[in-house]
Amino acid sequence: VHMAESGGGSVESGGSLRLSCAASGYTFSTYCMGWFRQAPGKGREAVAGWASDGSASYTDSVKGRFTISRDEDKRTISLQLNSLKPEDTAMFYCAAGRNSSNCPPTPQSSNYWGKGTQVTVSS
pLDDT digits over 69-100, tens only? Predict the structure, then answer.
């Protein structure tokens, strides 16, 4: 299983970025997938993912600003980041969990991780 993120960068407060994650090596539609982030000195937190019923789930701090999407044909998941704030600065990771009944994924339930892409938001 291989997952690779791209699209991070440095933007000013209020700016936007689009993160992408290319996945390979597993049946794309059967795993729980989501996006996580880790800020310096903090633990890894779930940002967005899909629940078992297919609905999108977001952590409260990003609701209305971030949007998760997926392309089954291209085997990619994406995260659109709008209205970015300095507190969004973090390394962002995509991850997948084998247990399709345990969605959206958590840091503990995710089995496969990308190496991350850095998002830096300046004020």
Answer: 999 999 999 999 999 999 999 999 999 999 88
Q: Does residue 104 have a cis peptide bond before it, meaning omega lies within 30 degrees of 0?
A: yes
CB atoms within 10 A of CB 117: 20
Other Cβ atoms within 10 Å of 39 Cβ, number: 14
Name the residue among 9, 14, 2, 4 with its Cα closest to residue 118.
Answer: 9
Nearest 5°: the CA angle 89, 80, 30 is 110
Cα–Cα distance for residue pair 48/116, rounded to 1 Å: 15
φ/ψ bin of 14: left (φ > 0), alpha (ψ from -120 to 50), beta (otherwise) = left
pLDDT in tens, 21-69: 999 988 778 889 999 999 999 999 999 999 888 899 999 999 999 999 9
User: Which structure tokens are listed for 53?
Assistant: 């019923």
**Token couple for 111:** 């089995």
